[in-house]
Write a structure and sequence with these properties.
single chain, mainly alpha, 62% helix, elongated
Length: 100
């Protein structure tokens, strides 16, 4: 999940299978960016965010709790993506006018 590696980015328009795979993978270098998404790019309550941070901090000794948080975030992200895509289909961006 690096800007220098675009194939590792998670985009709202990605296929749901791709989104799920990228969030749920276990590459150590991607765990902190996933937590960052939970903290900065979710509509989770402060208590839910604290739970995610705690699960992240304990992931070495309690990996199942971190996995559960990633599963919950995946569903949350997919719900947002679905709503986004529905809005885009309903309200497509207007085509710009070409001056002659």
């Amino acid at each position: 999940m690096s800007k220098s590696q675009p194939e590792s980015s998670i985009n709202i328009g990605d296929d749901p299978v791709v989104i799920r795979k990228k969030i749920m993978q276990d590459k150590p270098e991607n765990q902190e960016p996933i937590l960052g998404m939970m903290v900065q790019a979710s509509m989770w309550s402060p208590d839910k965010v604290k739970e995610a941070i705690s699960a992240f901090e304990r992931r070495a000794t309690e990996p199942e709790h971190w996995k559960k948080m990633k599963e919950e975030y995946t569903e949350h992200f997919l719900d947002i993506a679905k709503k986004w895509n529905m809005a885009v289909m309903k309200y497509p961006e207007p085509k710009s006018r070409v001056r002659e």
